[in-house]
Amino acid sequence: MRHLIAISLVCAVFGAAMAGTPAGSPAVEKAAARQAPEVLIKNTATGDAALARLKTLVGDWTGKTKEGQPVKVTYRAISNGTCVEETIHAADAMDMVSVYCPDRDGVMMTHYCAGNNQPRMRTRDSGDGGRMVFTFVDATNLADPKAGHMKNLVMVFEGKDRLIQEWTWSADGKDGTEIFRYQRAAS
User: Fold this and answer.
1) How many CA atoms lie within 13 Å of 113's alpha carbon, on the beta-carbon side?
2) DSSP the chain
3) Distance between CA atoms of 91 and 70, rounded to whole angstroms?
4) pTM for the full model?
5) Residues 67 and 117 in one domain
6) Are residues 30 and 49 in the same domain?
7) What is the mean pLDDT of each run of 10 residues along the chain (187 residues)?
8) Other CB atoms closer than 10 Å to residue 157's CB: what's the count?
9) How many domains does the chain have?
């Protein structure tokens, strides 16, 4: 909310200062020159390869938890193919969504958890070795570092039609792992 107020204030002040000033005038050009420069960070080959590996998952998958409960996952390319969305449908839990996006030399994942927090994890693995390991970076809506949240994700690619996910949940300083074994659903 503070950011929204600050942005509104800047827009109001800038707008008042520029009111009645035609585009291309020295005042507008001077104001444009004071703006922060645009920073462009290009993905590396590793980051591009990691996202390309995740895009091979696009489609529907079915599987089981380590307890034998059925679980489904759907992957789809979003944002003009620049990110991959994962939706996990577990029989005994609410759906959860994760979004994987390129981040320079890797991929950043935000997990929108049923636990009402959003941990972000990052990998620098390209997936070429058959694995991608995502490690915790930070989280939004996490009241306390000891509050329950997803901490790590390991994805193991077994060919093009089998996938294992090992999710690590951390709460009160103790970790537990849930394992999902998927196979690509028949089309």
Assistant:
1) 24
2) -HHHHHHHHHHHHHHHHHTTPPTTSHHHHHHHHHSPPP---PPPHHHHHHHHHHHTT-EEEEEEETT--EEEEEEEEETTTTEEEEEEEETTS--EEEEEEEETTEEEEEEE-TTS-EEEEEE---STTSEEEEEEEEEES-SSTTS-EEEEEEEEE-SSSEEEEEEEEEETTEEEEEEEEEEEPP-
3) 6
4) 0.76
5) yes
6) no
7) 35 39 50 53 77 95 92 96 94 87 92 93 87 96 92 95 96 94 91
8) 19
9) 2
What's the pLDDT at 92? Answer: 72
Contact by Cβ (8 Å): 99, 82: no
Which residues, 6 or more positions from 8, have their beta carbon under 8 angstroms from its beta carbon? none
> Are the CB atoms for 51 and 100 separated by under 8 Å?
yes
Say yes or no: 29 and 53 in one domain.
no
Q: Are the beta carbons of 78 and 86 closer than 8 angstroms? A: no
Q: Are residues 80 and 157 in the same domain?
A: yes
